[in-house]
Amino acid sequence: MPLVITKELIAQHNLTDDEFKKIVEILGREPNLTELGMFSVMWSEHCSYKSSRVHLKKLPTTGPRVIQGPGENAGVVDIGDGLCVVFKMESHNHPSFIEPYQGAATGVGGILRDVFTMGARPIALLDSLRFGGLDTAKNRHIVKGVVAGIAGYGNCMGVPTVGGEVVFNDIYSLNPLVNAFCLGVARKDKIFLGTAAGVGNPVIYFGSKTGRDGIHGATMASDSFDDQSEKKRPTVQVGDPFQEKLLLEACLELMAGDLLVGIQDMGAAGLTSSSCEMASRAGNGMDLDLTHVPRREPGMTPYELMLSESQERMLMVAKAGKEEECIRICQKWDLDVAVVGKVTGDGILRVLDQGKVGAEIPAKSLADDGPRYERPFSPPGYQDMLTNLNYDALPDVKDANAALLALLESPTIASKRWVYEQYDHMVRTNTMVRPGSDAAVVRIKGTNKAVAMTVDCNSRYCLLNPYEGARLAVAEAARNLACSGAEPIGLTDCLNFGNPERPDIMWQFVMAIEGMKDACEHFKIPIVSGNVSFYNETNGLSIYPTPMLGMVGLIESADQAMTQWFREDGDDIILLGATREDLGGSEYLKVQHSREQGSPPYLNLETEQAVQSCLLQLIRAGRIQSAHDCSDGGVAVALAECCLSGPNRTRGAVVRLTPGRQRNDSVLFGESQSRIIVSAKPAQRQAILELAQQMGVPAGVIGAVGGASLVIYLGDDRSTTKTVDLSIATLADRWGCSLERKLNQE
Amino acid sequence: MNVGVIVFPGSNCDHDCQHVFQDVLGQSVRMIWHKETSLAGIDAVILPGGFSYGDYLRTGAIARFSPVMSAVKAFAKDGGAVIGICNGFQILLEAGLLPGAMLRNRSLHFICKDVHVRVENAATAFTGACQPGQVLKIPVAHADGNYYTDPVTLAAMQANAQIVLRYCTAEGAVTPDANPNGSLDNIAGIINPEGNVLGLMPHPERCAEEILGNRDGKLIFQSLLKAMKVNV
Predict the structure, then answer these.
(1) Is A422's CB within 8 Å of B110's CB?
(2) Residue B180, domain extent
(3) Of A292, A414, A549, A645, which is least packed with CB atoms within 10 Å of its CB?
(4) Does the distance separating the beta carbons of B205 and A242 come in below 8 Å?
(5) Number of CB atoms found within 10 A of residue B31's CB
């Protein structure tokens, strides 16, 4: 059927006139429909990073431990003993709004494939989720669907979901965020890359059959939403975790032999991206004969086959002569498998169907020569309005008990037990620190080591000051790792923003990159993989800038893993770090005063580093019993969490804080950075305070563990007013059960 | 002792069971692919947790037809020791090696958390290292652990002391609140009348090492070694 490429057709494919002209230039002719489709997905924002690439280049990506930085399926970092960790984080935001269960499930499936396609066995998943408030049925439905989807996929795969974070803010009502992080372990000498080297080598398809689902998923993920977005449901893929489990085991078995040249999963843009990216990385071409592609239904066109995003599929380039062995292994695992082409030396991705050429495109042009935009950026006019906040107009806290309870039952701070109890977080028997502490810790079997992982971003800070917000996110992630006894070794990012064609959004993005860059360079933490998700916007309303970070740390001696909860009555409670008047952007201001305003907390990177180094030394010397970072809700909430979050029992505490000239609410609930609550046996007090002094870290004993209440005195030694006095039972009920209650309201 | 761990394509606790028997208890382990038909040389069989064939139908409903299950049935009939953990328990029910069936959890959610179970019968091959009435803390992780059987079978199991583990509080009280999934009579684990087949929903292999913070699960495996007269 002859087909005219009309302006409408080009627009439907989300391509601009200039981009279309460039395609014609590359091909020396007009594309056919299949080629137009292939270009449109590969040159989509989601696949080409056309708006972000010029800025992403600024990020530090190298370091002595880095084996593979960005550009492959996942980053790879050396952990010694001949082993490395392979990790990445990726968004599945758009599909999760349209179809929460499948959107989230396939997000988990995608990130798992990114990791095992590199030769690593996945050993941990984390998820960072953003939802709208729980007062609407629609938002509750999204939360339940997303959590069930993550559980359904990860649990079946037998990869534990060991941690994550969940934040609620109405700005995410129409654009929830689902960012999935996965970490695997591989032998250093057995890393596999997505490369189609060796002209003549066979190209083998294996996994599920190809169907009509997910066509244009990447294009959908590169567009804003409007009221018609529900109609995009058919572009959401459907996951089959059992199939992926087979794929995982088959891949690892294939990789154990000397069979493969390269391998890549078919994620966004399916067969198109895997084929052209592998060919392009090797500087080769590839002939693909679609006749052999296993398919779910007859009558599929080359356009549909090349653009389908059916899940659980892989493409491998085998060593010539090893086809039979590869096919045998795939068949052992009951997977569909077929030789679908071969590597060529002409640099062309050539798609054949029933003997006819369906598409002929230079692989490199498709994979790497997509447009690059230096989009204009400038701060929005409302930025000053956001940061200028007259604190004098806000009355200081009157009833601190009520304020603390309100914070503890705010879903962002409340216990996420309802969420993580639906995730199998123990399978593979490595989980040393389960969800609910500052970072998750898993041991590495066969070594004495453990890795700690955390995902972090305070998007309100990023809204108020994207540069500072990104620095703060890096600092907090590193602090969470330090609280677990780990030293950061690498970072993956998942940058969620609105529409990059808007200068204010682009400004947020550029500033956030600068902030991440500065903080990562200071801490010497390389960024080894990542993902950008733009167009998180509905009807013109954007999400808060959310540069999510997944940070990985190493604990050289697994028995030094630390947790956040108080462990023994009579222990000293010591606060490391100084409290400033940092109410801006706090959860307290939002919950008590409905303000998301002010400047985010002050951060000095040298101070931060000193606090973290001091903490790590204390942990390694065996001087402390627990460590917990002060973040959302300040010291008061952190103390409550230390009392409540222990896996076996709760504990009380009696604490005295001295406000000096500061407001009471700022002392209790302000979110000053670089502060850590530690507990220790009194016999260690002197050694701890001495080390802190040597390292220039402010430190003081603020109280003791014990009792059946959390009591906070505010004022000097003479003050006898219990500003906070709440029974642990009340705190446990509000903090522990409020999320479930809010989700189950009618 | 030669332990055979059955590997269905969707098993995902097979490595964990292998690790416990091999690395923690120093026994020899053979991983047995679901298409195998012989258990020659095996002293005890473990059906591990996971999602055998995806379990999109009913948990374990397809696994019972797999080639290896004929061998497992014959092995059990000859008195061989068989432990089914979680999905393994579900498969034993479907295969008719243990009575009853699993319903969805009362909450309709997957549940992963530590629970307490009380040893109701310490005179079995799987609990001999425990004290009668001892409370063990062992995690569960399942969506379908709500055990059900008819009243006649339940009465018979009670009379034969086939109910080996029941969900309880940390203090050992068998209460509705301590029941994580709605299981009939708080049943967490049962044996067959002959006493050589155990099915349990909790995962003892997940708490058999100090580094994971809990060694209660090790008692189940030590009991088996004791019954098999293996020195450890």
Answers:
(1) yes
(2) 2-227
(3) A292
(4) no
(5) 16
